[in-house]
Amino acid sequence: MGRNTIVNLTRLGTVKKSQKMKRVNVSKVGPNTEWAKRVLESQALISVKEVFNLKPKLIKDFIKSLRQFVKKKERGLLYAEGPAQERDSDSSEESEEESGDEDDDLPPLSCLTTYVKKEPIPLFLDPGAAYSIISTELLKSLNINTGELITSIKIKPVSGKVVEIRKRVELPIEFDDGIIIGIPFIVIKECAVPILLGLDTCMRLKSKINYEEETYAINLENKKHTYQLYSKDNVIR
């Protein structure tokens, strides 16, 4: 057979058109939360690990069930309203022990050495507080008059009732490097510390707290100023 030869092959019958397969909708089976619940509450002499060794396919189902369980618990915490219910004595003692351990891990309350009218005033830092606060007693000792807020502010201390604030004051706070900044404070009769710097001022000054290096930095007119942080015990003696 030479080159470029065309060969016509005989037909071996007609080719049937392929039939379209019917699409079957398979509903996704959700995780068997009831099974997971039984495993968690089971008192049988078999561990969950042994169950998974016997039926590895149940691992994914179990993980999905746990995720749903966690989501339900989170929703309950987020949307819960009203005061917390009293717990029994055993659970309250455990929670107190746990909170005590957590407090040990927290950094100590930090403060700066600042001055008002050349008077040394330890300025406590609390970015968790929405406003910068000063006590009435400290203002009296400094002989500084207060002004009225345009709109009163309601705050709730960690322990106590809601307090309505009507007084304000702007203090010329002098830092260690001689820079003086006018900082607004709200005035409250009773306060855990005489004066504290809250989130409002920290954001305005673009503050950064470095607990590892024990420094507090602010940004003023595109210039960074860094100050040493001190513990409450080291400043107040």
Describe the protein's architecture and organization.
- By secondary structure, the chain is of the alpha+beta class.
- Among the domains are: 33-70, no CATH class; 109-231, Cathepsin D, subunit A, domain 1, CATH 2.40.70.
- Helix content is 30%, strand content 28%.
- The chain is built from 7 helices and 11 strands.
- The chain has helices spanning 33-41, 48-54, 58-78, 89-105, 136-142, 199-204, 232-235; strands at 110-116, 119-125, 133-135, 147-155, 163-174, 180-188, 195-197, 208-210, 215-220, 223-228, 230-231.
- The strands form 2 sheets. It has an 8-stranded mixed sheet. Strands 8-9-10 form a 3-stranded antiparallel sheet, with no helix packed on it.
- A hairpin with a 7-residue loop joins strand 4 and strand 5 (163-174).
- Helix 1 crosses helix 3.
- The radius of gyration is 34 Å and the shape is elongated.
- The chain starts with 32 loop residues before the first helix and ends with a helix.
- The model is unreliable at 4-15 and 73-107 (pLDDT under 50).
